[in-house]
Design a protein that fits this description.
The protein is mostly helical. It contains ten helices and four strands; from the N terminus they run H-H-E-E-H-H-H-H-E-H-E-H-H-H.
């Protein structure tokens, strides 16, 4: 890179030089603050027993904490309930996309499988939303190293930095986690271009419906 500037630094600078000041961003942030606060209070009676159960069945740590690239290229720590076996991230760290999804299946703990099916492992991310690291709706957060690789392959990838990463997003609601990175990017860019309060609420409603279907499927699916 010219001047010793990395890809992440360059795209961070570009995102900050072209801030989006539309009124909708203020409205979406207000919704994030209100809804994440409500969800945290509602989920607290679930979060405590989940943490205790994880500590008893798969030992510590109870939480997974990972570095992710946020709005404007700022790196933050994303928190979730741990669903994988200890040391799984080191074994999976160099995989991406469909290969990562396939390899991850072998690392998921028994309780982690249930948490993922019900999306309850995401509860701690409401705190990330409240802090301003994330939004309820937006492109899913990505690790810094993967951001560097994908930004080098996909010139439009830096545009994800214009908005906060989301707990859910267009790509997850429409196609699922196995979708190629190119397809995911197209959905992410569509959200960035067309984001609105109506689209935000529709995405949350679609996510709730998808989680309900996955939860019911997880309950009646035979364990492996």
């Amino acid at each position: 890179m010219q001047g010793g500037e990395s890809l992440a630094e360059r795209y961070s600078r570009l995102a900050q030089e072209t801030p989006d000041r539309r009124r909708v961003d203020f409205e979406l942030r207000a919704l994030d603050l209100f809804l994440s606060s409500v969800f945290l209070v509602v989920c607290l009676p679930l979060a405590i027993p989940i943490g205790v159960a994880l500590a008893l069945t798969s030992w510590r740590p109870v939480f997974y904490r990972g570095q992710r690239v946020g709005r404007g290229g700022r790196v933050f720590t994303m928190t979730k309930f741990r669903t994988l076996r200890p040391g799984a991230e080191a074994r999976l760290g160099h995989h991406l996309g469909a290969v990562l999804v396939e390899r991850t299946e072998d690392e998921v703990t028994r309780m982690g499988r249930w948490l993922r099916a019900t999306q309850l492992d995401e509860i701690p991310q409401f705190w990330n939303v409240l802090r301003g690291d994330m939004s309820l709706v937006g492109p899913r957060p990505i690790r810094p190293r993967f951001f560097e690789e994908l930004a080098a392959e996909l010139p439009a990838y830096w545009q994800r930095l214009v908005v906060r990463p989301g707990l859910t997003g267009f790509a997850q609601v429409r196609r699922g986690y196995e979708t190629s990175m190119v397809e995911k990017l197209s959905h992410d860019l569509e959200w960035i271009a067309d984001r609105s309060v109506r689209l935000y609420l529709r995405t949350l409603a679609a996510t709730a419906w998808r989680v309900l279907r996955q939860s019911l499927s997880g309950v009646f699916r035979p364990s492996r």
